[in-house]
Design brief:
three-stranded antiparallel sheet; 32% helix; binds adenosine-5'-diphosphate; 2 domains; alpha+beta; binds magnesium ion; seven-stranded mixed sheet; 322 residues; Transferase(Phosphotransferase), domain 1; Phosphorylase Kinase, domain 1
Length: 322
């Protein structure tokens, strides 16, 4: 499937290719319009030029401008590219090739029709429970695979969950493993009003308990996304400051999980300052018709103590998803 254009690609090592100039990419692919816009880069739909296939071979290509302050390609980014190349799962976006040009990095990956954020905006309210089940299952299968392969995502949110339409159903693909964050500046600083969202961030990340930050932090985000599909909007919405969000989290989850002793000194301070009378039993308590099994699973994902939070593997065995 790879294009045979050795005159364009100067050096190629597996999926990593060095381009003398970014514009030479158009010798290999044809521009098909914008697919999406993120915090770090714009994503376009492209068609492979050299293809003998009957159907057009399309991909998504993410172009990230390299931060001039970072000389060369950080070794961590190279490591991450090789890591992503090895991740092969139906629910993880597959990276085809990576082109490194003097001022930008172009990642070519399989194409998806939309992302969960745009899809939920289109629906404009809660999703149907059976759809929530199939999407959550797929999200957990993808995350479980990553965790089994010692990779964690760190930035799971609806905009990074892609959806491919296939025979009238949605195939979910986890995307955006943070490659761009390593060698770029957020686009919002220069071009777009996109802001980095903190609404899916685990309490241990807010509270800076470094030794606590492991696979469980992805499960917190999965819990937020799972609950958002029932609610039709982000569950910790309403606050934009770090302190506001963490307070909101505590107000809505302490009823369920008062164990914050392991969340460091900052956690203790917030706990002390918290107006306990305002707490709610859980983020979906104001909704009717949410199956009890779904609430139970959500609470296990939103356990404040990361050591007590359910794992992706554990969640896949939960009766609500069986
Ligand atoms: N493979 C893809 N196919 C279709 N659209 C994509 C693909 N990858 C990303 N997008 C769209 O582009 C947006 C930004 O991409 P992302 O990789 O998340 O960039 P960023 O690191 O800037 O957040 C996504 O939210 C999605 O809407
Ligand atoms: Mg993104």
């Amino acid at each position: 499937m790879l294009a045979k254009t050795p005159d364009v690609v100067v050096r190629s090592q597996g999926i990593i290719n060095i381009l003398p100039h970014a514009e030479r990419i158009w010798d290999i692919y044809e521009h098909q319009g914008e697919a999406g816009r993120g915090v770090y880069g714009s994503v376009i739909k492209v068609k492979l030029r050299a293809s003998t296939a009957k159907e057009p071979v399309v991909f998504a290509m993410k172009r990230t401008y390299r931060d001039e302050a970072i000389a060369g390609i950080p070794p961590t980014a190279i490591r991450e590219i090789s890591l992503l190349q090895d991740l092969r799962h139906p629910n993880v976006i597959r990276i085809e090739r990576v082109f490194i040009a003097p001022e930008s990095i172009l990642v070519v990956m399989e194409y998806a029709d939309t992302d969960l954020q745009r899809y939920m905006e289109k629906i404009g309210g809660p999703l149907e429970p059976c759809e929530i089940k199939t999407l959550t299952r797929q999200m957990l299968e993808g995350i479980n695979y990553c965790h089994m392969n010692r990779t964690y995502h760190r930035d799971l949110k609806p905009a990074n969950i892609l959806l491919q339409r296939c025979d009238g159903k949605h195939v979910l693909k986890i995307a955006d493993f943070g490659l761009s964050r390593q060698f770029s500046y957020p686009l919002s600083q220069k071009h777009t009003p996109c802001v980095v969202t903190m609404l899916y961030r685990a309490p241990e990340v807010f509270l800076g308990a470094a030794e606590q930050q492991t696979y469980a932090l992805d499960m917190w985000s999965v819990g937020c996304i799972f609950a958002e599909m029932f609610k039709g909007k982000p569950i910790f919405e309403g606050e934009t400051s770090e302190f506001g969000i963490i307070l909101n989290i505590f107000l809505q989850t302490v009823g369920a999980s008062p164990d914050i002793r392991n969340l460091g000194e900052k956690g203790q301070q917030i706990w002390t300052a918290l107006d306990k009378k305002r707490t709610k039993p859980h983020p979906l308590s104001d909704l009717e018709d949410v199956p009890p099994g779904a609430i139970d699973l959500m609470m296990k994902m939103l356990a404040l103590n990361p050591q007590k939070r359910i794992t992706a593997h554990g969640a896949l065995q939960h009766p609500f998803l069986l």
